[in-house]
Structures are given as C-alpha cells and as structure tokens.
Batch of 2 targets.
Target 1
Amino acid sequence: MSTAGLEGIVATQSSISSIIDGVLTYRGIDIDELADQASFEEVIYLLWNGELPNSSQLAELRQDLAAHAAIPAEIITLMKSLPENAHPMATLRTAVSVLGLLDPEARNMSLEDNQRKALKTQAKISSIVAAIQRVREGKEILMANPDYGYAENFLYMLTGQKPDQIAVEALDKALVLHADHELNASTFAARVTVATLSDLYSGVVSAIGTLGGPLHGGANEAVMHMLEEIGEVDKVEPYIHQALAEKKKIMGFGHRVYKTGDPRAKHLKEMSKKLTALTGQPKLYDMSIKIHDILEAEKALPPNVDFYSASVYHSLGIQRDLFTPIFAVSRTSGWTAHILEQYANNRLIRPRAEYVGPKKRHYIPIDQR
Ligand code: ACO
C-alpha cells in the first residue's frame, strides 16, 4: 500500500475551509464572493469566529490589529545583526520564534490566551515582513498608522508612502485569496505541532518553515525567477519545452487537490492583466499567458494560486523574495484559526510508517566492522 504524500487521506475534521468539487469556501462562503466583496480583516474575523463581523466587530478588529502591530525592539536589533543576504523567509521564521520567546503569555493555554496570541501574531507579522525590507535597505522602521487598514498599512510600512488605492485593493484581494486552504502542508504542520500542546507561536514557526519550500508557498518566488530568466515572450516556448523535456516542474502549475483548476488563479490572472498594464509591464502578463497556454495544452496542468500572484506582487513594486513572506502574512489567519480549532478538540497527531528497512539483525562491535 502506498500512501506517499498522504494523498487523499482525510487526516482531521475541520469547519474552517473546504474544497469540494473544485470549489473553495471559507466557513461555507465561496472564495469568489469573498474575493470580490470581502476585506482581508473581514476574512480574518470569519476564519477565527466562524461568522462575518458586523460593522462594530470589524472596527474593533481593525483597531486591535493596528494597536498590536508594533514589534519588540529585540526583534529589530536581531534583524539588524543577521547576514544581509539572509532569505526573508528565514528571517521571518526566526523573528516569529523570538516573538514567542518574548511573550510572557506564550505558554498560557486558555482559549482567551490563545485568541490573544493569534491576534498579536497576525498584527505583528506584516510589520515584521515590512521591517525585514526596511532593515536591509538601511531605512527607519515605520509604525502602523491606526487610520489605515491591514493591506494599506503593510504597503505603507514597506515603502514609507501612502499607497494608492489600486495597490491597496490588489494586495487586500491577494490576502483574501491566500488566507486559508483546508489541510495544506503548512497548516497540517501547524496542527501537528500544536497537537502536542506546544504553543501557538511554535505552530506558526513550523508553518512558516513548511510554507517556504517551492512545492508549496515558495513557488510564487520561483515563478518570478522563471519569468525573469525567460525575459521575452518569444523565448517562452523554447524555455518551457526544454524544461518539460528535462522533466522539470514548472512552478505555479499543478495541485494536489485541484485537478481541473484552482479557483483562486482566475482572480489573480485578472489582477495581473490589469496591474501589469497599469505599470507598463504587459510583457510579464503576456509571458505568463503563453506559459499558461502551453501547460494547459500539452500537460493539462492548470495554474495554481502562485502563478499569477508573482506578476501581481511584482507590479506592486514588491521584491521577489518577499512574495512568500506575504503569503505567510495572509495564511497566518488560516494557520491560527486551525491552531485554535486543533486546541478545541485536541488529540496527538501521530501516524505510523510502513517499515521497509533491513530485517532484524545484530549490532556489530566496531572492531569487527
Ligand atoms: N510542471 C510539470 N509537471 C508537473 C507539474 C508541474 N508544475 N506538476 C505536476 N506535474 C506532473 C508530474 O511530473 C507528474 O507527472 P508523471 O505522473 O508523469 O510523473 C504528475 O504531473 C503528477 O504530479 P505530482 O508531483 O505527483 O503531483 P503532486 O500532487 O505530488 O504535487 C504539486 C502537487 C507539488 C503542487 C506539483 O504540481 C508541483 O510540484 N507543482 C509546481 C510547484 C508549485 O507550483 N507549487 C505550489 C502549489 S500551490 C500551493 O502550495 C500554494
């Protein structure tokens, strides 16, 4: 019996998000409706509480997120001491670990304690990602503006400028689209970690480490790398054909669960078209479309959430190695919702392995080997 990759195995029950017949819902609401109508803060509230917020609940969440956005001075000092070429995902993983280390409540386990830790982590993670960029540019770290929403604050803390509305709306929609995704690898890692009754920060650190690989969230950075390597629309065909002939995976395509298409990709495709045109880089979209056509026609592989998000983030002026950290900023809402759900009905997650190693044998003393 092969259970490689746990494909098709139902490992837990969850009421947070579902993928049924290729349709993704958060708490029962179709991602298409949320992408078109909800703000990221509404989605955070929905994932954590099971219902959409009313106006005063939303206002309170927005206030709380801004109020907790400041990051401890120790983390900034630490960031400044790290090698300049450290990958932002490694810095982010380390910074969230230190966040847990510095939180005197980290190991308190009541529901209220864990909800507060989820709020603090969500509030601070975008400040940490923005600070990673500011530190490596040698610029001052900026505090969140309480008058701005979450996406707007992130872009403001990153660039020091009040972002334009189109950029804010685009990032907000990208955050909505990436917020949760059933039992994806990083969410599973988070749940495994906290199912030992380890603390919430440890769960998020496990999740960040798991998200970073190119088969998962790291694919968005890899897509941008590929687009830059290809460079011109007329080079797409030879590049992709050669990669396929060499049995290389084309980043941003394929999915373990979706076989006929990722419902998030069409939203990002539309955004990519609009933003690359607005920023005078339609070539990026044209190359993407050509890659998409070849993969669909020749491998029947549709794009996943990571493919068009690369050109979207690039059009927002975001550096390539921050793409996956931004995914982490969004997915923190889902990770923490799953961590709270795991604690609420916990059982240690401890599967078995089918042993295929040597038959039982004896230890040989070192002088006889
Ligand atoms: N490019 C080329 N061929 C592919 C790709 C791809 N991107 N994805 C799958 N295939 C092929 C495989 O080579 C394999 O072919 P074979 O049966 O002839 O050997 C077949 O399709 C099945 O692929 P698997 O890798 O077995 O599928 P699995 O479910 O294990 O992997 C995964 C899913 C990891 C997403 C895979 O499609 C992939 O590596 N994609 C590229 C990386 C990527 O975009 N990751 C982001 C996923 S979305 C997310 O995590 C946010």
Target 2
Amino acid sequence: MKKQFVIIGLGSFGSSVCKRLFQLGHDVLAIDNDIETVKEISDYASHAVVANATDEDELKSLGVRNFDHAIVAIGEKIQPSILCTLILKEIGVKKVYVKAQNLKHQRVLEKIGADRIIHPEEEMGIRIANQLDSDKIIDYIGLSKNYSIIELEATNKVSNHSLVDLDVRAKYGCTILAIKREEHVNVSPLPDDKIVQGDILVVMGDNKSLKRFEEKGL
Ligand code: ADP
C-alpha cells in the first residue's frame, strides 16, 4: 500500500531512506535547508523542497501535518533535530522516526514523544557482527533482545527434505517463515514443501534455538 513519508535532512542516512522509499513506490517529500542537497535528491523523491525544519510555519505551509510518517535525519546537530521532532508531534504527524546522535539526544527524543529512535551506525554494526559470527547467516533482524529473524542458506544436509521431515519447530523450537529460491519467495511454506540446497531459509525464533538450528540442523 502506498504511504506518504516526509524525510527531513538529506545526509547519507536521510537520502538513503528517501531513495529507497521512493523506489518502493511511496510518496516522499524530501526536505533540507541546503539547496544543493535538495537539487541532488530531486530525481529520487516525489517532491524535494528547501526549508528550515525548525520553522513551524514553513513545515505547516508544506502540509507536513497531513503526513502519517516523518523521518528526522538531521545529522550532527542535536538542537534542530529535537525542535523539529517537537514541532512534528505537535502538529499531529502520527509516527515520527528520529535518527539519534547519542544517549542524551535519545533521552530527550523519548521525552518529547518520538515514536522510534534510530541509531544507524550501532544497528548496522550489530547486524554486520551477527552476520560475521557465522558463515551460514546471510542476514539478521533483531526482534527483541532474545528473538530474531535470520536468513540461512540450505546445505546439502537438508536438501530434498520437506518441512515436515525436518520438523524444525519441534526439534529446535524455531519456525521457517519463508523459503527463497532465486527470485521466488515462498512466504507461506506448506509442510510438504521441499527444500533444495542453496535455498535461503528465513527462520524466526529465540536466539538460542536459532543458534542450535544453525549449528546442528544445517
Ligand atoms: P548523515 O550523518 O546522515 O550524513 P548529515 O549531518 O550529513 O547526516 O546531514 C544532515 C542533513 O540535515 C544535511 O543535509 C543538512 O543540510 C540538513 N539539515 C541540518 N539542519 C537542518 C534544518 N534546520 N532544516 C533542514 N535541514 C537541515
């Protein structure tokens, strides 16, 4: 479903979010106070405008209050990021996601009602470390402290076995959510669906179960 996003601050993080959302077919309003930055993004956003994100009247005149989702990606400067977040929440943007610089910044953002606080470097660092931790893990998404979704490559050991044969849920306590085979993704695998070597298994579970499945099941 097409959604409306406003992205404020178009540094490396903000512009990546903007380009990807636009590529996915969403409506994206990109805002930055630097004219050159706005010019650069203009082919990769529905609208790109120069505005000061700490000016409430400017944000209102751009119709920002009508957006359900805002991403505040103002870089190093904490004060404008906080002020902008405050304005967005006050004018009624439903979900405001904010890139935080540090813990103090995070605490203030929590107090003023930011809906999600993002630490891109830390989150990416953890993700990469989890991929490096194992030769088998292709990708990793942390759901909470103890639960994750990981992508694993199916080895010869499981090749030509159906999900019911493998019985991963009973044996390891985790669930195969999807099976990717080249471009095709089987998002609701049936018990009789067979796995082939090289398939990518998308598996959800608690971290201990996932580790056991990765080490013993594959
Ligand atoms: P990153 O770490 O993601 O690369 P940067 O610090 O490079 O972030 O970029 C932040 C962006 O936010 C810059 O393009 C800057 O022009 C923009 N920005 C900073 N202050 C404001 C503001 N008050 N209004 C709008 N954009 C701003």
